[in-house]
Write a structure and sequence with these properties.
The complex is a heterodimer of chains A (137) and B (223).
Chain A lengths: L2 H15 L5 E11 L6 H12 L8 E7 L2 E4 L4 E4 L18 E3 L3 E10 H4 L1 H16 L2
Parallel strand pairs in A: 1-2
Antiparallel strand pairs in A: 1-6, 3-4, 3-5
Helix pairs in contact in A: 1-2
Chain B lengths: L4 E8 L2 H17 L2 E6 L6 H15 L3 E7 L4 H7 L4 E6 L8 H7 L10 E5 L16 E7 L6 H4 L1 H6 L2 E5 L11 H11 L4 E4 L8 H16 L1
Parallel strand pairs in B: 2-5, 2-6, 3-4, 3-5, 6-7, 7-8
Helix pairs in contact in B: 2-3
Classes of the chains: A alpha+beta (137), B alpha/beta (223).
Chain lengths: 137, 223
């Protein structure tokens, strides 16, 4: 369950982006490499658990999964591997340890909404409309 | 109504750990301490290998110390301290891996300048420790002959991040019908070119090669 530690780090990064107490995080986009060893369901579970009653409550984790990409010295080209079981060039069969992608564990972006605005603005319209209705003959 | 804003963050999730680990590694290297992170499943024989390694290092006058992570008990630290080396237990109380700040806290009062080798015995686990850099210069993945040749294929994440693989309990290979060439092939599939050292801590097999490897790695680090 190292996903709990990862969730804590994600929350910490997201909280640093918030600038006012009325802001809420709606979603967080992550880039996770095939070799990074993160179990999605455990991450969702941990994230939901630790964000309850915080500005991140209910935020969605949007995960972009990145396949392993190696550099094949024989083909002199970047090659995407179909799995994580064999570091072998799928085109020519050369073994290569030159990993170029697959260990990513990044927060790409955070979607924030300021509920101080999104809630209050229409509410104040409503109040004005109600007040107008009450005062009108 | 204000629309949601998308903030481009582009940050490594484990940035805090990575940065601390990088600073620790720079400091270890400046002080000439080779830090070795030992990772394997529980029961592979990390402690047995380390016990024998420390004993030989102490005997040869190589200043060495170890920190050892476990969920509970200081049994391993007490076992390792018999070697005469300085040893400290990190009890993680349920956490499945070590993080850089845990190591930093547990060695804060040590005179690192007097050391040449510092071993970190990670929590027995083949999955979780692989993402956390502890400031080590060498990451060792251990695999015992009793576990089966396909461990590297089952846990590629860990074996792919290792600098060296140590096969333990090699004295039991025959009894376990250990397919040595399959194991070597699987290791090479996951981590092409990885150095493999075959050992038995109990019988003293391969330990000279192992110690020699560590000495070479320290020399390389110093240059």
């Amino acid at each position: 369950m190292h996903e709990l530690s990862i969730a804590h780090s994600i929350v910490e990064i997201a909280k640093q982006q918030l600038t006012s107490p009325t802001e809420r995080v709606r979603s967080i986009r992550l880039r996770i490499g095939a070799l990074s060893c993160v179990h999605r369901d455990s991450l969702y579970f941990s994230f939901d658990l630790i964000t309850a009653d915080t500005p991140l409550a209910g935020a969605k984790l949007l995960i972009d999964e990145l396949p392993i990409v190696v550099f094949c010295p024989n083909c002199e080209a970047l090659r995407e591997l179909p799995g994580i079981q064999s570091f072998t060039c799928p085109a020519c069969g050369t073994r290569t340890a030159d990993l170029r992608q697959g260990r990513e564990l990044d927060v790409e972006s955070i979607e924030v909404v300021d509920e101080g605005h999104s809630v209050n603005t229409p509410t104040s319209h409503m109040v004005t409309a109600e007040a107008r209705a009450r005062t009108s003959p | 109504m204000i629309e949601p804003r998308i903030l481009e963050v582009r940050t490594k999730i484990l940035k805090k750990n990575d940065e601390l680990a990088r600073a620790m590694r720079a400091e270890f290297q400046r002080l000439g301490v080779l830090v070795v992170n030992l990772v394997s499943s529980p029961g592979t024989g990390k402690t047995a290998l380390l016990q024998e390694t420390l004993r030989r290092m102490v005997e040869a006058g190589w200043p060495a110390a170890a920190v050892v992570g476990d969920l509970e008990t200081d049994n391993d630290a007490r076992r390792l301290a018999q070697s005469g080396a300085t040893v400290r237990q990190i009890m993680t109380h349920g956490m499945c891996h070590l993080e850089a700040d845990m190591v930093q806290r547990h060695i804060a009062d040590w005179d690192l300048g007097s050391l040449e080798y510092l071993f970190i015995e990670n929590v027995g686990n083949l999955v979780c420790p692989s993402s956390w850099d502890l400031g080590e210069s060498v990451r060792v993945a251990l695999l015992s002959v009793t576990e089966g040749e396909d461990k590297p294929l089952k846990y590629p994440n860990l074996f792919n991040t290792a600098d060296v693989a140590v096969i333990t309990k090699i004295d039991l290979a025959e009894a376990c019908e250990f397919d040595r060439s399959a194991a070597l092939d699987n290791l090479a599939a996951i981590r092409p070119g990885i150095r493999v050292i075959e050992t038995s801590a109990k019988r003293g097999i391969g330990l000279d090669v192992w110690l020699d490897y560590l000495r070479q790695m320290r020399e390389r680090m110093m240059n």
